[in-house]
Amino acid sequence: MHKALSIMIALALFAGACQQPDSNNNGTDSTGASKVDKIPVAVPAFQADSAYDYIAKQVSFGPRIPNTPAQQKCADWLIAKLKSYADTVYVQRTTVIGPNKEKLPCINIIGSFNPAAKQRVLLLSHWDTRPWADEDAFDKTKKLDGADDGASGVGVLLEAARQFRHQRPEAGVDILLVDVEDYGSKTDENSFCLGTQYWAKNPHIPGYKANYGILFDMVGGRGNQFFMEGVSKQYAGPQMKMFWDVGNQLGYSDFFRYEDNGAYITDDHVPVNTIANIPTFDVIALKQDNNFATHWHTQNDNIDVIDRKTLKAVGQTLLQVIYNQPFAY
């Protein structure tokens, strides 16, 4: 996934100016929900082994490239998994146009929890694999497993879904697994995130809204760290800081970094912000120099790079936020 390290500062600053939530002193938070203190609930323990197994299962299908048997097999498995956990599951099947005008089948899968709840959080990740390892030092035409870039975010969200099934959160939660994110051309940023672009224009429920969204991308690699990406800060700065604060409070300060590394990234959160108008931030592995992890878009992005410690840090932070303070920003 190109997730271009773009110079999007002007766009991001404009968007941030337009979308920063108004401060208020009327006893409500930025969503309009009451700020009355709630009694903390016992947050379930995120099972990193379970998330790891979900990642390994996706990888076992082979590269999840559009127009391949692996795409359909993995989609069928994801749909069945979400149906076993969520209250309602929606499946969007459509055709999108790739960077070379090719027609690509696209399968977006949405699982909803507490569908009647008005206050909602959108959680999303892409599940497809880039068709070639174009950042590889040796053979840029080879396929890659996409264990971290794609499967890890899905693995975290499936484990969260399993926990939501056993212990219902108070907030409404929607898990969006998007397809055809990573097929794009480096020369055209709009050729990425095609499944998310489709969903943002055609949500699973007409007029769908969430208070905010969280994108999980490359969240399982050994040594991964998460910096506060620039576009995310401009569109969903308070929500992102809340998530980072919780991660640090839980003892994961080595993962959730506050330093500004200057990265502005084109990823699935961009169409959710700009088309669906849902403030959304990106939890994505970056380095201090604002580059991606060394296994990004290479054949090294395989199951061997996945680390349960990274999965635990991300997953436990997510559960803590959802169960105890989803709107405390």
Automatic annotation (TrEMBL):
Keywords: Acyltransferase, Signal, Transferase. This is Peptidase family M28. GO terms for molecular function: glutaminyl-peptide cyclotransferase activity; zinc ion binding. It comes from Chitinophaga terrae. SUPFAM superfamilies: Zn-dependent exopeptidases (SSF53187). InterPro entries: Peptidase_M28, QC/QCL. Residues 108-321 form the Peptidase M28 domain. Residues 1-20 form the signal peptide.
